[in-house]
Design a protein that fits this description.
By secondary structure, the protein is an alpha+beta fold. The chain is 43% helix and 24% strand. It has one domain (14-44, 99-267): Alpha-Beta Complex (Lambda Exonuclease, Chain A), CATH 3.90.320. The chain has helices at 33-37, 43-61, 87-95, 97-120, 132-144, 195-212, 240-267; strands at residues 14-17, 22-25, 28-30, 62-64, 70-73, 79-81, 148-158, 163-175, 179-188, 218-223, 232-235. The strands form three sheets. Strands 7-8-9-10-11 form a five-stranded mixed sheet. The longest helix has 28 residues, at 240-267.
């Protein structure tokens, strides 16, 4: 099995800058698959989520002492009384609750993805206690489908449509009544499967087909949420035409909005 960067020789210059997270093809910067898949607006549900995080943070931090006076537990471990002097500090911390949660979730997700990749590469893994349950779920999923990894962290460049990206796993899965099927699998550590996840997976397949030929038969999204909710395997078999069309529609919208964004920047000067 090959790891990141593996592939056939090409006459084109494909490059990825990990510090700036930028892809280029023959020196021309191209968008990433995840950027294209998220081109339509998701701000409304995110706004509700951020507001709920503030409420949850305050509900968990507020305490009532034996004297009946209310206080608030701060992130540094101190407890301060609710009064006019402390309100700004309390509210300022509550406003950042969604950022704190996101950073913690991102860190756990990164460690989980790394452990899953090492499992696929048959390398030793050190599993932290806070991701043990999710990793065990992943291992059971791999055993259930007799997962046989082919590539991990494969970077793909689509010269035909000028975009690029990197997906988590290409493997053979044993599917009832079908036998071994070649899947492209993208790992997610979100709460559930979102539409952009499936569209993103389709974008990777389009790029892979363009660069390497039609090897991938099906795509899927493997959601490994935080502790308390089980793994979700979203097998997108049978929906490739719709998902590939949706990705190409997102790409078209992304490309058409670029000159509009440039115009607005000019008008706002």
């Amino acid at each position: 099995m090959e790891g990141a960067g593996a592939g056939t020789e090409s006459k084109h210059n494909y490059h990825f800058d990990p510090e700036k997270h930028r892809y280029t093809i023959d020196g021309t910067r191209v968008p990433g698959v995840s950027t294209i898949a998220k081109v339509y607006d998701h701000s409304r549900p995110m706004a509700f989520w951020a507001a709920n995080m503030v409420v949850q943070h305050l509900a968990e931090a507020m305490t009532v002492g034996t004297d009946g006076l209310q206080a608030c537990r701060m992130a540094d471990g101190t407890t301060i009384p609710l009064n006019e002097e402390n309100y700004k500090r309390i509210f300022a911390e509550a406003k950042k609750a969604h950022e704190v949660f996101t950073h913690k979730a991102a860190d756990a997700g990164t460690r989980l993805h790394s452990a899953a990749e090492k499992f696929c590469l048959n390398e030793p893994q050190v599993i932290d206690p806070d991701i043990q349950d999710q990793f065990d779920d992943f291992r059971r999923w791999a055993e259930k489908y007799q997962m046989r990894p082919l590539y991990t962290e494969r970077m793909v460049f689509c010269e035909k449509y000028m975009f690029a990206g990197q997906f988590d796993l290409m493997c053979m899965l044993t599917i009832p009544d079908r036998g071994e099927v070649c899947f492209e699998v993208d790992f997610k550590s979100s709460k559930r499967v979102y539409d952009s996840h499936a569209i993103q997976a389709a974008g990777y397949k389009i790029a892979h087909d363009d660069q390497y030929g039609p090897m991938i038969e099906e795509i899927g999204v493997l959601v490994m949420p935080r502790v308390g909710t089980g793994l979700v395997w979203a097998d997108c078999s049978g929906y490739l035409p719709q998902l590939e069309k949706a990705f190409m529609d997102c790409l078209s919208l992304y490309q058409s909005m670029k000159p509009v964004a440039a115009l607005c920047r000019k008008l706002n000067k």
